[in-house]
Amino acid sequence: MLTLLVALPMLLLSSGATAYAQTAVDPLTVGAVQGTTPRSPYAPTTGNGSSSAKYQVRGVVTQLTLAHTNTGAEQHGFFLQSRTTNTDGDPATSDGVFVYMGTFTTLIGGYAPVVGDEIVVSARVAEYFDLTQLTNAEWITTLSTAVSEIQIDDAVPPAEDDLFWERHEGMQLRVRTGSGVVSGTKTYPATGDAEVWLVDRDDPVMKRPDPYGRRGGNRIMLGPMGLKATDGNLPTARTFDTTSGDAVGGLYYAFGKYGIQVAGIGFTPGTDPAANNPPKPADRQREVSIATFNVENLYDFRDDPHDGCDFTGNAGCPGVTPPFDYVPGSQADYDARLGRLARQVTDSLHSPDLILVQEAEDQDVCRVVGAALSCGAADNADGRPDTLQELALTIARNGGPAYDAASDRSGADARGIVSGFLYRTDRLALVTATQLKLQVDYRGAPLPGNADESNPKAFNAVLPADVDRSTGVDGSNVYTRAPQVGLFEVRAAADSYRLWAISNHFSSGPETRVGQRTEQAAYGAAIVDAIGTQDGAQERVVFGGDLNIYPHDAQLAPLDKLHNLWDNLTADAPTAAYSYVFQGQAQTLDQLFVNDALHGDLIQMRAAHINADHPDAVSDHDPQVARFQSRAGLSVGDARVIEGDSGRTPLVFPVTLTRPMSRALTVCAATVPGTTTLPYADFDPYLGCRTVPAGSTRVDFPVQVRGDRLREGDEQLTLEIAAPSVRVVDGRGTGTIVNDD
């Protein structure tokens, strides 16, 4: 056991000179404090406590730091590192350590740390959430000033070395010029702390020819503590920017991640993520566009008198712990956010016909009067979320189309977050609630509210007892935020048809609530099954939202009967297939699934990369937009018939629509001889029109084949079709006359 030193005399000499008076036992090197394992040998063996004894440690002050608590209290500290001539010589130990000072700006003894001073301190050794640090530090002496003999390694973590960061904890590291940013600068409002993730300039991902593929890799996080010590903060950067110069700072560990607390940093603008295969405008005469958009805690600046947990200072609701920190800072902040969301809808999403929305506040004390929101004290004023109505009004004021909002408030969670819809009133309409009647066949007991009549409608059930709870559950029901099922009439150019939409917000945390989220997917699949086939035809169904899990994860297996449009996006534009960026890693949490009928109408799936990569994001999610054919598709099938010896036999060509139409459709057809037939020798030419009745999907065209006894080969002819106001998917059918002589 090392014995404690007595205080050393302070001898200030010229720059870099040693003024250390040897005693019976030298102070510890920083490497000795850090040790060869993640936990210091001088700290308690478990927990977040400090050693009861104090140890004298020698090192150079390399950087001052400043952080803030959630309440704004200042937290001071500095990095201490052994000079290159006084290390322990072991590459497995770090030569740097963080010294925590709390609200004080000086150590015990009155010393204010100065970068470049080599000092000896007497301090307790602590492990604080896996960060080795010195606490309760007392200044003993200053050995030298303006010391520059400090090892500064490049921040180039090897791909397979998990100990790289631990071996450099507390040390100064260099981020090299030209390193690539892989996330937008993220600022945490409660503390004002910011972070940005990047990769070294020589990381393999930086060599990819496609600039949009330069992400992932061996990520490096930058933090703000060094900059905040000089009244600064990390500058804003977005994905694909690069560092404009070398940046140096101490390596700190908090919240499960290492971060280099640089003293200064600059960025050079790079490729704009929003230009990565963006959504295209829909042709309203031929297409319908559907989006999903998590608007991230869209709360207004009103204190709902009927809600105890929707505003700063509220007492709280069951399951919601004050303080309530989702409210915008002011009415002006709220209005500005609405304006930015509105511009994203119109400019980047090109005003989709239908938006599946998540994370809107469910408050409903207002109604639209004219072109403004009129608010009062009555609860459930008009059955629409005030926030979504205000967003719709903002879109209209900015020159966009007219939208209406829709949601079933019973689907909200404990803090008033609900899913819902925004839909263009010139393109879609909600059908009457009496038409939305579903009997969801699910093994859990349905909630009483399932029987209520509304459109949209929230469906939920009791979470079955056998669901795996080992990773936690959120509440006693399948959903904490019930899915919203909406039934819409799409007003296409020539007719109208029904569209079922299901807006979801699954439980958060991909690695937690695994059993519950799997059950949510199973319930969602049951809803789709309940919609199924109605009126003799398969309904068109879109199922989407923030599912909080990655595509094709086993948790989504119950939805495999549907088509995940992420697959289409990945096939068309693989570098654009993501909706969320977490610690520099592109992920897909927001997804759109469709059934067979709607998948047949798909034109294109795209993601609008307008948030997740940007420092000034209005949401932490990127919207997804899919375009579909809105006109019914018309096809003619092939036909085959045996010629016969005499008389006439019909060669029947089936003509089908991809969906029933709301009115009768006239289809015209004509025969064209094939190369193996004499012109009209073996069949009667056909030129005429037939009608597909409203609500039907098929009509047959018979071509009369003439029988004979001639020995000849099989013969072919073609039937060509045409019809107004529909899209011809396959307009030529091949007819084969099989010779039987």
Mean pLDDT: 93
Structural category is mainly beta
The number of helices is 7
Portion of residues within helices: under 10%
The end-to-end distance, rounded to whole angstroms, is: 108 Å
Q: Spans with pLDDT under 50 lasting ≥5 residues?
A: 1-24
Rg for CA atoms:
34 Å
Cα shape: elongated
Secondary structure tally: strands: 43
Main beta sheet: 8 strands, mixed
Please report which band the strand proportion falls in: under 5%, 5-15%, 15-25%, 25-35%, 35-45% or over 45%. Answer: 25-35%
Q: How would you characterize this protein structure?
A:
This protein has 741 residues and is mainly β. Helices cover 9% and strands 34% of the residues. The protein contains seven helices and 43 strands. The strands form ten sheets. Strands 6, 7, 8, 9, 10, 11, 13 and 14 form an eight-stranded mixed beta sheet that branches. Strands 22, 23, 24, 25, 28, 29 and 32 form a seven-stranded mixed beta sheet that branches. A hairpin with a 4-residue loop joins strand 24 and strand 25 (496-505). Residues 1-24 have low confidence and may be disordered.
Key structural traits:
741 residues, mainly beta, eight-stranded mixed sheet, seven-stranded mixed sheet, 7 helices, 34% strand, elongated, disordered N terminus
